[in-house]
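Section 5.1 Outputs to date
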Amino acid sequence: MRRAASAAVLVLTVTGCAYYNAMWSAERFARDARRLEERGRESEARTQWARAAVKAESVLVHHPHSRWADDALVLQGEGIAFSGRCAAAAAPIARALATVTDPPLRERAGLAAAHCALTTGTSSAAAERALAEPLVSTDARRRSRAEYLAGENDARRGAYDSAAAHLRRSQEPEALPARARVLLAAGRPADAAALLDTVAAVRFREAEWIELLDGLAVAGAADAASKSLDRMLARARVPSGARARLLIADGDRRFAEADLDDAAARYRQAAVAVTAGGGGGGGGGGAVPGAIGETGDEGSIARVREQRVLAARAAAPGDLSPVVTELTRIAGAGGGASDAQILLSLVARVSATATSPGAAFRSAELARDSLAAPRLAGRLFLDLATADSGSLFAPKALVAALALLPEQRDSIVNVLDRSYAASPYTRALRGEASPAYAALEDSLAHELGVELARVAPAGAARVRGSGLLTGPRGPWLDDAPSRGGTPPPSVRGRPQPGEPGRRPAERPTRERPVVPPASS
């Protein structure tokens, strides 16, 4: 009997040790996952959460009625949910909420349920129900997390005041930038700008900064974003490569607003930042995948951007000669060669001597749409009308020049009235209906389409129905494959609160009629 009792004790001891070791391993993986999340290493954290879930499931399978079974069930649900598999986590989380009675464990299960409701886009009511207990928890950390999730949930349904209040009560690192997004969505850019200073003092994450600054530029103009960036850079330690990328992005915002002096100054600052920091690279706090200069060539790319500013200032084809020279040098130097080559190709096409009226018209469009050089484009449109006055493109080119050279409006209108009074384009300019307008557009679409097939990327010409869509056609420098990037801030969608990461909107069509209404 003694031997039997001893054997039973030994079995229980061995079983208890195995059970304890499995649970201890599951908790250790969960602790590691939380630490990794705090450091912004989400991918590694998901791996650790998955390991925690496997260990917790093992405890449940081998010891379903042990005193730690509830802990294992909740940890299994958390691990599966936070590893990115919310669909698989639904069953253990639902079981935990139905059977577990311990308040802290129920709160943890509720947080996991709310996380999945937000991740999968389930109704906001589901997230609200899941957060009912965590929001009144006596544990400050769980309550803080619940406030953050509640703020995100309210932001997604447009309840911005309630969202801001929840996020203000949260101590989560993500709460500050989330609150800034809410303020931007609520149309309060000044309050958001003030909050960005606090974000900079707490931590640096490049992708997060770019998203918030882009949102501020959309809501409060590029000048507000520039001033916020200056304050943020003064408050935080930012690696040289990331600093250069932020300055380049700000230069791009200023360029999109036609603030050429400010854009050039930003690009020069970016080049200096790389030189002072001993080179590019250095993502620091989460660089944007595929962003400008991800390979450490920020200095060269900043110099390419400076040349883009010079091209935008050009008033005649001859003004592009020094731009061609410098871009050729940059392209041959290595870093930023792809960006330099793309811009060089466009500049060369604009400055080349046109071989037909269609080619001349396309060169003027490229100057207007791709180089953002209104004075140069206007000059090219006028040159076309002068050199090929009998071309179908001539009156269309004159009307296009009106929007680009307002100081010459009277003289251009006089030419239209004198030489092209019967043209459907001149009549449309006066607000008169013309049955021949659509037919003429068909003819021009055909001729320009043939030209585009030879010199422009596929899809650059956009034709709908019976007429040519006469707005900007690109190609857009900001769509260049080497950038892997997004449209400029002036055409991005407003960042949506409660949705992590950058969310570049589709580029609007940006179509504008070549023939303006009479009122313009």
